Amino acid sequence: QVQLVESGGGLVQAGESLRLSCAASGRIFRIAATDWYRQAPGKQRELVASITRGGSTDYADAVKGRFTISKDNAKKTVYLQMNSLKPEDTAVYLCTALYEQRVWGQGTRVTVSS
Question: Which residues, other chains included, contact 64 with Cβ-Cβ below 8 Å and sequence gap of 6+?
Fold first, then answer.
């Protein structure tokens, strides 16, 4: 059974950076297309960034130019580099991918203070 584990969240000040990781474990040979979502208190979960198996990427307008999604197939890990963080980026960030079934990680909390 495939599992996804996020890490790298924390408390930072506005303008600072964080790198989140989404590590896949289990019987996989190649990272599936993976998405990063975030959920802020009282708000709907929103798609932040996506990366396909081939490495194509896409971003929500709110994070374009500040966030970068990438992956390391050897490490079975997808990253989300977040620069120039803003208080409105505060949320729990979750990664998800479709293997034999849709898999979600447990989330990592990002708090950006002004």
Answer: none
